[in-house]
């Protein structure tokens, strides 16, 4: 496929080097294009119905139980995206099972057990977000280059 006359690669990934003493560990983060697999595993919570004094029903999105379910769902979705993004790294997780949403959040604990620091984990997460196109500096640089070439 081409956009603006430029061939677009589908095999893009962000390289995330983590240096630990003499050891170099290279993580690769790919963009996650959709959540179809996740949606098959985890159903989005549905708010309970509430009843107003005038007998009108409404979705009670402020219900504490629903809010807790929604927070859990969004955390699992984010953790799944991070794991899916890191697939090119060929990681064999100790306690993560990609078919068990209850384990998605264990990825960070697995890294901590290997003595990865908070800063190293943050670097990995930042690389994952960059792979998703969520790097405002890169977006601004690209915009400036485009505007400069358009003049």
Descriptors:
5 helices, two-stranded antiparallel sheet, alpha+beta, 151 residues, two-stranded antiparallel ribbon
Tell me about the largest β-sheet.
2 strands, antiparallel
Distance between the termini: 26 Å
Judged by helices, strands and strand pairing, the structural class is alpha+beta
Along the chain, the helix and strand elements come as EEEEHEEHHHH
Count of alpha/pi helices: 5
Instruction: Based on Cα principal axes, name the global outline.
Output: extended
**Total E-strand runs:** 6
Mean pLDDT: 92
Which residue ranges are poorly predicted, with pLDDT under 50 across at least 5 consecutive positions? none
- Which range does the strand content fall in? 15-25%
Helix content: 40-55%
Q: Spatial order of the strands in the main sheet? A: 1-2
Radius of gyration: 20 Å
Question: How many structural domains?
Answer: 1
Task: Give a verbal description of the structure.
The protein has 151 residues and is an alpha+beta fold. It has one domain. Helix content is 42%, strand content 16%. Strand 5 and strand 6 (57-59) form a beta hairpin. The model has no long low-confidence stretch (mean pLDDT 92).
Quick summary:
This protein is of the alpha+beta class and 151 residues long. It has one domain.
């Amino acid at each position: 496929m081409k956009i603006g006359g430029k061939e677009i690669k589908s095999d893009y990934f962000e390289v995330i080097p983590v240096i630990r003493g003499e050891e170099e560990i290279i993580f690769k983060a790919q963009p996650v294009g959709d959540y179809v697999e996740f949606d098959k595993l985890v159903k989005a919570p549905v708010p309970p119905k509430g009843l107003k004094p005038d007998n009108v029903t409404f979705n009670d999105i402020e219900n504490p139980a629903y809010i807790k379910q929604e927070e859990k769902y969004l955390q699992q979705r984010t953790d799944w995206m991070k794991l899916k993004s890191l697939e090119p790294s060929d990681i064999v997780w100790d306690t993560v099972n990609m078919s068990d949403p209850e384990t998605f959040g264990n990825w960070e604990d697995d890294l901590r057990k290997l003595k990865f620091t908070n800063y190293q984990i943050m670097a990995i997460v930042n690389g994952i977000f960059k792979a998703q196109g969520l790097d405002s500096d890169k977006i601004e640089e690209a915009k400036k280059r485009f505007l400069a070439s358009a003049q």
